[in-house]
């Protein structure tokens, strides 16, 4: 009788476990599909210029700044360097065009170094615009229309003076003319290859703010859900110690939750602003690396899985 009850309980646990995995997989797949197949045909940068004069920011929303950006390798330039009366013409010989998003693997070979990105956006309507950037590796300093808007870390040509930080950036500027000039200094001398790995987003300030807040909320929901699952299945394992897959699934959810807290919007930095970037750089990979062995252990520990796999 007890054996039948235990088998019934195990069957319910497996049903819940499989159901959660299916729901998580379906939701993630839908999100990725929507991200890869946007409903709008966004304008793309060509030759360092993005023509958004036919784009209605008020109705059509934010534009990802994909396409061809100007790039100046091994130079950290400011708006004064692009002054036509000063060094502007001299820089033409060092100007090259690279695709964004993308890393520096094809630029410097090693993927490390420093450089300056530049993009000019043509618009029709003066307004309050914002730039939102994620995965600008591994340090940045941003200028828009000649104004110094700061950045993350400290980009430098020297690896000794370089200070890494990969946190998201958010900058706002009032555009009074039809051209918006964006300059981004980037340096990466360790941890990860440099570059604009994810295209920055540009649009009206209220829209960009809403996008950022919604992304943070989505991350918080995913992280909270995974941590609740971790606690729930840890409690289940405490009650039924003969079922190791409960412990492995708890650890899987915990590792995945910690990884998501250090990726994308990096919400853990919002919750703990005093935490150093070195913690993220050195420890963020640990939860990600733990996910795979936990998945393998989980699959092998489910009752009957060894026989089905022929082990």
Keyword list:
311 residues, alpha+beta, 2 domains, four-stranded antiparallel sheet, 13 strands, 42% helix, disordered C terminus
Q: Could you characterize what this model shows?
A:
- By secondary structure, this protein is an alpha+beta fold.
- The protein has 2 domains: 49-199, Sandwich (Jelly Rolls), CATH 2.60.120; 212-305, no CATH class.
- 42% of the residues lie in helices and 23% in strands.
- It is built from 9 helices and 13 strands.
- The strands form 3 sheets. Strands 1, 3, 4, 5, 8, 9 and 11 form a 7-stranded mixed sheet that branches.
- Strand 8 and strand 9 (147-152) form a beta hairpin.
- Helix 4 (205-239) runs antiparallel to helix 5 and helix 5 (244-261) packs antiparallel against helix 8 (285-301).
- The protein is elongated and about 80 Å long.
- The two termini are 30 Å apart.
- 29% of the residues are buried.
- The H/E string reads HEHEEEHEEEEEEEEEHHHHHH
Radius of gyration: 24 Å
Please count the beta strands (DSSP E, at least 2 residues each): 13
Coarse morphology: elongated
Number of domains: 2
Mean pLDDT: 82
């Amino acid at each position: 009788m007890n054996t039948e009850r235990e088998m019934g309980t195990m069957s319910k646990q497996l049903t819940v476990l499989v159901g959660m995995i299916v729901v998580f997989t379906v939701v993630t797949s839908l999100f990725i599909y929507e991200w890869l197949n946007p409903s709008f045909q966004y304008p793309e940068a060509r030759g360092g210029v993005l023509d958004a004069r036919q784009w209605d920011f008020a109705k059509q929303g934010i534009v990802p700044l994909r396409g061809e950006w100007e790039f100046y390798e091994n130079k950290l330039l400011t708006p004064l360097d692009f002054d036509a009366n000063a060094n502007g013409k001299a820089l033409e010989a060092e100007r090259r065009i690279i695709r964004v998003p993308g890393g520096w693997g094809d630029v410097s070979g090693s993927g490390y170094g420093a450089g300056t990105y530049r993009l000019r956006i043509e618009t029709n309507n003066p307004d309050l615009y914002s730039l939102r950037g994620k995965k600008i590796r591994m340090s940045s300093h941003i200028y828009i229309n000649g104004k110094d808007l700061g950045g993350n870390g400290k980009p430098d040509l020297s690896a000794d003076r370089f200070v890494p930080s990969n946190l998201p950036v958010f900058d706002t500027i009032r555009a009074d003319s039809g051209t918006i000039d964006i300059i981004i200094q980037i340096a990466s001398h360790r941890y990860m290859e440099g570059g604009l790995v994810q295209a920055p987003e540009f649009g009206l300030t209220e829209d960009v703010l809403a996008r950022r807040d919604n992304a943070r909320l989505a991350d918080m929901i995913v992280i909270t859900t995974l941590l609740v699952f971790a606690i729930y299945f840890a409690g289940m394992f405490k009650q039924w110690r003969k079922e190791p897959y409960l412990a492995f699934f708890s650890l899987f959810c915990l590792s995945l939750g910690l990884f998501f807290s250090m990726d994308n919007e990096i919400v853990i930095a919002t919750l703990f602003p005093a935490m150093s970037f070195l913690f993220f750089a050195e420890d963020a990979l640990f939860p990600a690396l733990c996910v795979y062995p936990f998945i393998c252990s989980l699959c092998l520990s489910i009752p009957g899985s060894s026989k089905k796999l022929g082990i």
